Amino acid sequence: MRISVDQDVCIGAGQCALTAPQVFTQDDDGLSEVLPGREDGHGSPLAREAARACPVSAITVAES
């Protein structure tokens, strides 16, 4: 799986970091980003849940 965050869409709600803290964090501006080395999701079932929790659908989880 491939995980990405569209920072042009992200509003910094932080739902992804709360749902899957092993995959997501927030940068200095409060916008969400995927932790380095976690772009492939490492099989985290919470990555999809975090994408669903995003209020502006800024997270994409795609099968590789």
Give the topology, please.
Layout: E1 2-5, H1 15-19, E2 24-26, E3 32-34, H2 46-53, E4 59-62
Antiparallel strand pairs: 1-4, 2-3
Number of beta-strand segments: 4
Largest sheet: 2 strands, antiparallel
Helix-strand makeup class: alpha+beta
CATH topology value: Alpha-Beta Plaits
Features:
64 residues; alpha+beta; Alpha-Beta Plaits; two-stranded antiparallel sheet; 4 strands; 20% helix; 22% strand; globular
Structure description:
By secondary structure, this protein is of the alpha+beta class. The protein has a single domain, classed as Alpha-Beta Plaits (2-Layer Sandwich), CATH 3.30.70. Helices cover 20% and strands 22% of the residues. The protein contains 2 helices and 4 strands. Strands 1-4 form a two-stranded antiparallel sheet. The longest helix is centred in the last third of the chain and has 8 residues, at 46-53. The chain is globular, with a radius of gyration of 10 Å. It starts with a strand and ends with a strand. The mean pLDDT is 93.
Summarize the structure.
Its cofactor is [3Fe-4S] cluster. With 64 residues, the chain is α+β, with helices and mostly antiparallel strands. It has helices at 15-19, 46-53, and strands at 2-5, 24-26, 32-34, 59-62.
